[in-house]
């Protein structure tokens, strides 16, 4: 299976105003665990996102940054329930929203 470089792991957690948020500071609103997404093409299956984990707590701002084609949009589309199925397939993971 062809792989797309997985750079969605470059996540930055900050509070409004720019200060870093302590890891245990507040309740978790969004948690993404082990998210993997593939697309089925005429050439075969392409792994677009592999094993992405992150959480977002109340008061945080989360920036998802990375190179073009590394899975930023595919990850956020999955969180919003907008992955086109087919050709997309959520292979594994959980998306938990409070």
Fill in the keyword field for this structure.
single chain, about 100 residues, mainly beta, 3-stranded antiparallel sheet, two-stranded antiparallel ribbon, 1 helix
What does this structure look like?
This protein has 98 residues and is mainly β. The chain has 1 helix and 5 strands. It has a 3-stranded antiparallel beta sheet, with helices on one face. Strand 2 (28-41) and strand 3 form a beta hairpin. The longest helix has 8 residues, at 72-79. It is elongated and about 45 Å long. The relative contact order is 0.33.
Q: Mean pLDDT score, rounded?
A: 80
Query: In percent, how much strand structure appears in the residues?
Result: over 45%
Distance between the termini: 34 Å
Number of strands: 5
Largest sheet: 3 strands, antiparallel
Backbone shape: elongated
SSE arrangement, N to C:
EEEEHE
| Lateral strand order in the biggest sheet | 3-2-5
Report the helical percentage: under 10%
Number of DSSP helical runs: 1
Overall radius of gyration: 14 Å
SS-based class? mainly beta
* Quaternary organization: single chain
List unreliable stretches of 5+ residues.
1-6, 8-14
In short:
The protein is mainly beta.
SSE blueprint and pairings:
Layout: E1 11-15, E2 28-41, E3 44-57, E4 60-64, H1 72-79, E5 88-97
Antiparallel strand pairs: 1-4, 2-3, 2-5
